[in-house]
Each structure stands twice: as structure tokens, then as C-alpha cells.
Amino acid sequence: MVMLADGFADRLFEAAPEAGDRLVFRDGLAAASPALGTVFALAGGGPAAPHLVTEAVEVPLADYGQLSVADFMVSLYNGHTVQRVLIALPDGTRQPVHDMLDAAIAALDEQMQKAG
Fold this sequence. Notes:
Layout: H1 2-14, H2 22-32, H3 34-44, E1 51-58, H4 69-77, E2 81-88, E3 94-96, H5 97-115
Helix pairs in contact: 1-3, 1-5, 2-3, 3-5
């Protein structure tokens, strides 16, 4: 999904002949949406880029009703934790990848609507 979102930004650029420079266009998208900026950095790679990690995440007991049966069973035997894919950001923080992708795709959709 990261690579698809990154590629879609290029499609938006190609559909806007007045956009000028591709990198300037992408910088503008990233400035308007931190989630898109993260997608671009993740797709671009490099030593200081964010990367994906799989880690155990604690599930509060109040959230157990939202878990799938499989996650519920896993959490019972793993100290109330489930495995999740996270984005490890350069500052050491972690962010759920699905939340970031939802925000990035929403930003791309907004840009597409503007482009008409």
C-alpha cells in the first residue's frame, strides 16, 4: 500500500501539466499532509528513513470487544498483547501503519477531488 500511495502521487502530478517540477509537487503534497510525507520517506528508503516493524502492542482490557477472535486468543496467551505492524519513525516513536495509510490516502483523495 505504501508503494501504491507513493505511485499515485506521481499520477496526480502527471494529470496536472501546470504542476511544474515533480519533486516540488511532491514536496507540496508532503507539506500539506504529514502522513503523505511519511509515505514518501518510507517508500524512498535510506538510512534515516522510517521503516516498518512488527511489535507486540498491549491491548487494554476495555478494548477487548473490538478484537477479532484470533487476536483475542493471541492476547490471552501473550500477556494481553497482539502483534501489529508499526512505522518506526527516525525520532524513535512508533505509529500504526494502517492509521498513517488511511490519512495518506485521504489526502491523496482530497488532492484528486481538487484536480477534478
